[in-house]
Write the structure tokens for this entry.
Amino acid sequence: MADDEDQSSKTEDPTSRKLDKLKEDGNVPTSREVNHVFALIGILMVVGLAGPYTMKSLGDLFISIIANAGSIRLEERSSIGVVLFHSGLSTIIALMPILLVMLVLGYVGGIIQNGPVFSSKPITPNLEKISIVAGFKRLFSLKSLAEFLKSLAKFVVIGIALALVVKADLPHIYSLAQTGVGSALMATKNLLLVLVGVALLLMVFLAGADLIFQRMQFTKQHMMSRRELKDEVKETEGDPYVKQRQRQIRADRARQRMMSSVPEADVVVTNPTHYAVALRYKPDDGDAAPTVVAKGTDLMALRIREVATEHNVPLYEDPPLARQLYAEVDIDEPIPLQLYEVVAKVISFVHELKARKNR
């Protein structure tokens, strides 16, 4: 029941991060039919290009056996073994191009489906894989039954198609008994090309359907719950609560640094209540232009005015200028050139005010 509830909660498609992890473990949606298609393409290539060499090698082997049939003595077991060994070795050598190309193109089929997959996990010994109980469960599972029925249907369809091709060519096949070995081998090669071509056409359609099916099954198997999505976000981006707390701490520290700069300001331009911008202009300390050292709205503006009053920093009421400074100039940045004239009047007023107080 718990497993059913857990499975029913998995309603979200797997994320790219989860898919990457699965790929690192060698767990990717793979259609064997696609690999078989590339293997068949390899057979066509080899039979078409290296066919004459292969057929000649096999023909020479058969001719040699037939020509020496009267001189080969098979009375002893050792003689039979020698004949079988040399015949088998010659056959393998003749078929080696086909086998190699099938192997390489079968691997290429896997790369085309999922890209290069480098993982030793699929071949790492696993007790569950060699467990008899687990093996029986896999053997008699619905997935195994579906794979069996799919393979059976594939062989039936392709078998019927190839049987129809052979049946249509039976008169020609019967006539090969009246021809030489070379002609028979060439006719066999041509028939093999036709059979492989027909099988390849059918396999392309079957492989396309199977690839779509395998990917749908893979996605369904690795669906994620909303909780898993949240946990993944926490792993990749951090806990949202912690991140919010960190942002709050950084903002508090920035406000503290800003408020500590208010006593050093020369003037605070106000709205008078909604905006407050503290300006500092000390040419002797390297200020090339008046610089915004603190700014804020509403409660923050009130706090800036309070600190300024506590440290005898003059307040200058100019609502348009206060709003413009707040909107256009960041903290610790000098004012723009177009505000020089307006701010210069403010600074001059402040200096005159200080001069009157000092008299």
